[in-house]
């Protein structure tokens, strides 16, 4: 749909202009790609070109920069926060939807002594939010939710918020409210090291690709196939409840490749030395905390917490990154840091 | 009616014979008619008919009884054991799966006991599958289910072993493997096992249906044979004023014994078989279903904690945790099954374990609610302790329910075996006895008539 609109607008400008733009783009890419690509495959040009085109299509979208569509930070209590604080006794907890299958993001370490405690980068953030709102980092009731249940869980009030590697995008903004971004990532391809698949490109022809049901990965692939970025022969019907289930299918040879957020793909690769990330991330995405659409006070509060969390050098964002993610994403966290937040949403 | 010499008849009939068979038949009939005009001829015919009737009675009795005895033997020694094996396959598969999920929940604290339980479940299922395979023919409806299970079992085991290996390394992909294994079990293996169980149960019911109906053909023939014998003797008495013809009396006695033996023997066997069905098979089915319900309940209780609210189910306006909802259904099925089993239990020895299981189940429900309350309050570890912990956990209740149901099943199996065995015994010897007596009876009839015939020479 996006592409159609793009093509229509291109026609509107006139063929010559469009051709010129494409040529210019190609030149720029030819100059830039060698710098951006470290691995450098033979098809780097085509892959990069497609990624750029997808980027351009995104820019043409009416809802530009979804990660900026959030409310300005504030530490004040409102009706939503009051309601949480008024919970009595054992129930005085923040109910948070998380994942228990994302290695180093939100997972249950089978070998941890506590036996049942969830841990990871997302979980650290949850504890910080609970500490700020309820004064106790452990005043949390974790609910594990599958990828496609994140939005219904919020809408039906089963959880106060979802902190679960959830990408901020325009479609979702229609259903829920997001905090400012707390992490930057992009879709990436994961395949066995021995596989011929080299990235998000023609090498995916005839490949069976696994994605999580209701994930950004799936909608991106769907769009990609429509736009022609993804070969039409690629089979994207293999969806599973959780991105980690894709690793199982990949190991069992039921699929040829996995597409998921780079951050999560790295977590999968960390659990199996025979698979690796193929090519660069072909989208740019930001993770945000999702809340009910009308929970304005909570959104502002979480944004405030995120500002403090980023500033806190001893026990904040950086410390959590170093603890959980540096092993899989590299000691340098710059590629994962979200941009300085902007708060464009007014109400 | 004037008697026509047979030669004449033979001479007149051939010319208009378009159909030779008809003619031959007509010829025989005419011969018979001719014979029937003289008393020795009539006696010959009567003797032949009597002998034929008695032999036919014996043969049909032997055939029908043999059929029923074979079916009864199949009930006792084939279809019931196979159907209970099929139930065992289902139970051990579900048991292994439950043990595997408990092991996952326990994490590093996984007990050796769980491992043993899992291994035992897999082993039992594999053994019973081999037995079931050897008992089924390639075209059997159950053969497909058996081969499917044979194919899936190693796949399942492979997934669980992968899960275990990854768990030990601390990777959450182990949990993903376990979910996949569980899905395979719930969506493919257990339905196949249930299918097998249902088919074998159907076979058992078919065998019962073959074993119990009254052998009406044999009984009717017996009555006809006895009536014919009585008529022949009455005729004899009228013609000769002799009361007893030894041969005919012997034939009548033999036929009477066979008829009585048939009716009494079959009635006893039928009673025994019906008893084995009402007090054995029905109880066994109810108990097996209850045991399976308790296993399913336990499995779902574990999965409630494994999935941590990941799946919900909407019923009307209310939203439930999908696994807890299934648990409640399973517990309700268990309660219903136990109540029915209590009704069916016809002695204290059979009733006691069922009543005990009922008590265990009530305690289980109580503890389960407590565990759910902890989980709803976010006290996951406490909820876990209340489900798989060492003391006071719901696991204890489940184990007791299972053990009590196993005791009850054992008792009912014995009940079944003794009732069905008694039924089968009542039919033993009947087929051969009927054949021998019928031959003797036929001989008696022939000799008896022969004695009268000899008076005409």
| DSSP helix fraction of chain A | 40-55%
Structural class of chain B: mainly alpha
Order of helices and strands of chain A: HHHHEEEEHEHEHEEEEHEHEHEEEHH
**Biggest β-sheet description of chain A:** 5 strands, mixed
Question: Any idea of the CATH class of the largest domain in chain A?
Answer: Alpha Beta
What is the CATH topology assignment of the largest domain in chain A? D-Maltodextrin-Binding Protein, domain 2
Q: Name the helicity range of chain B.
A: over 70%
As laid out across the biggest beta sheet of chain A, the strand order is: 5-1-6-15-7
Q: What order do the strands of the largest sheet of chain B run in, or round the barrel if closed?
A: 1-2
Which range does the strand content of chain B fall in? under 5%
Transmembrane segments (chain B): 43-65, 214-232, 244-264, 426-449
Keywords (chain B): Membrane, Transmembrane, Transmembrane helix
Organism (chain B): Streptomyces fuscus
Protein name (chain B): Secreted protein
């Amino acid at each position: 749909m996006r592409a159609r609109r793009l093509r229509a607008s291109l026609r509107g400008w006139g063929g010559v202009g469009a051709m010129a733009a494409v040529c210019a783009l190609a030149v720029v890419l030819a100059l830039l790609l060698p710098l951006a690509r470290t691995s450098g495959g033979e098809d780097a040009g085509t892959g990069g070109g497609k990624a750029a085109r997808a980027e351009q299509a995104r820019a043409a979208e009416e809802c530009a920069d979804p990660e900026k569509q959030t409310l300005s930070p504030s530490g004040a209590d409102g009706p939503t926060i009051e309601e949480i604080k008024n919970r009595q006794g054992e129930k005085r907890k923040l109910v948070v939807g998380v994942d228990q299958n994302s290695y180093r993001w939100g997972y249950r370490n089978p070998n941890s002594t506590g036996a049942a405690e969830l841990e990871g980068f997302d979980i650290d953030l949850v504890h910080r939010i609970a500490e700020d709102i309820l004064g106790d980092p452990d005043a949390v009731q974790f609910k594990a939710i599958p990828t496609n249940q994140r939005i219904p869980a919020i809408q039906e009030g089963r959880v106060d918020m979802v902190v679960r590697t959830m990408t901020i995008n325009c479609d979702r903004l229609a259903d829920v409210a997001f905090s400012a971004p707390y992490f930057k990532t992009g879709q990436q391809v994961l395949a066995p090291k021995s596989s011929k698949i080299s990235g998000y490109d023609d090498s995916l022809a005839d490949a069976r690709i696994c994605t999580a049901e209701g994930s950004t990965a799936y909608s991106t692939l769907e769009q990609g196939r429509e736009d022609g970025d993804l070969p039409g022969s690629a089979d994207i019907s293999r969806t599973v409840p959780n991105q980690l289930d894709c690793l199982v299918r990949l190991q069992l040879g039921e699929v040829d490749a996995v597409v998921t957020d780079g951050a999560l793909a790295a977590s999968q690769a960390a659990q199996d030395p025979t698979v690796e990330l193929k090519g660069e991330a072909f989208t740019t995405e930001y993770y945000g905390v999702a809340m009910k659409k009308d929970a304005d006070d909570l959104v502002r509060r979480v944004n405030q917490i995120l500002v403090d969390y980023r500033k806190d050098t001893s026990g904040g964002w950086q410390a959590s990154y170093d603890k959980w993610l540096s092993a899989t994403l590299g000691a340098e966290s710059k590629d994962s840091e979200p941009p300085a937040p902007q708060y464009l949403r007014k109400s | 009616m004037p008697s026509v010499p047979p030669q004449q008849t033979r001479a007149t009939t051939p010319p208009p014979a378009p159909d030779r068979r008809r003619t031959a038949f007509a010829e025989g009939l005419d011969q018979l008619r001719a014979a029937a005009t003289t008393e020795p001829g009539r006696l010959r015919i009567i003797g032949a008919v009597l002998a034929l009737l008695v032999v036919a009675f014996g043969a049909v009795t032997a055939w029908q009884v043999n059929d029923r005895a074979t079916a009864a033997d199949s009930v006792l020694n084939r279809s019931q054991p196979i159907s209970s094996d099929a139930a065992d396959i289902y139970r051990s598969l579900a048991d292994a799966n439950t043990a595997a999920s408990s092991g996952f929940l326990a994490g590093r604290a996984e007990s050796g006991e769980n491992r043993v339980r899992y291994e035992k479940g897999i082993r039992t299922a594999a053994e019973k599958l081999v037995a079931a395979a050897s008992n089924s023919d390639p075209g059997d409806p159950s053969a497909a289910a058996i081969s499917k299970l044979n194919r899936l079992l190693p796949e399942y085991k492979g997934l669980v072993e992968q899960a275990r290996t990854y768990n030990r390394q601390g990777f959450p992909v182990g949990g993903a493997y376990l979910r996949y294994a569980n899905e395979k079990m719930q969506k493919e293996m257990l339905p196949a096992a249930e299918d097998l169980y249902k088919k074998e149960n159907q076979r058992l019911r078919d065998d019962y249906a073959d074993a119990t109906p009254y052998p009406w053909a044999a009984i009717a023939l017996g009555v006809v044979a006895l009536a014919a014998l009585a008529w022949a003797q009455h005729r004899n008495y009228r013609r000769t004023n002799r009361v007893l013809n030894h041969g005919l009396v012997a034939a009548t006695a033999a036929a009477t014994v066979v008829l009585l033996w048939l009716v009494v023997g079959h009635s006893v066997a039928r009673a025994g078989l019906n008893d084995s069905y009402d007090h054995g098979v029905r109880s066994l089915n109810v108990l097996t279903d209850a045991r399976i319900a308790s296993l399913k309940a336990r499995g779902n209780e574990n999965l409630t904690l494994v999935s941590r609210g990941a799946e919900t189910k909407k019923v009307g306006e209310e939203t439930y945790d999908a696994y807890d909802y299934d648990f409640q259904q399973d517990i309700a099925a268990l309660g219903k099954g136990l109540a029915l089993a209590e009704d069916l239990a016809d002695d204290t020895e059979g009733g006691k374990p069922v009543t005990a299981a009922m008590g265990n189940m009530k305690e289980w429900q109580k503890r389960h609610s407590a565990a759910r309350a902890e989980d709803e309050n976010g006290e996951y570890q406490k909820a876990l302790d209340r489900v798989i912990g060492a003391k006071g956990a719901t696991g204890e209740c489940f184990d007791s329910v299972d053990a009590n149901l196993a005791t009850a099943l054992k008792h009912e199996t014995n009940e079944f075996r003794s009732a069905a065995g008694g039924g089968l015994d009542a039919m033993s010897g009947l087929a051969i006895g009927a054949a021998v007596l019928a031959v003797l009876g036929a001989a008696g009839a022939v000799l008896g008539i022969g004695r009268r015939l000899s008076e005409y020479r």
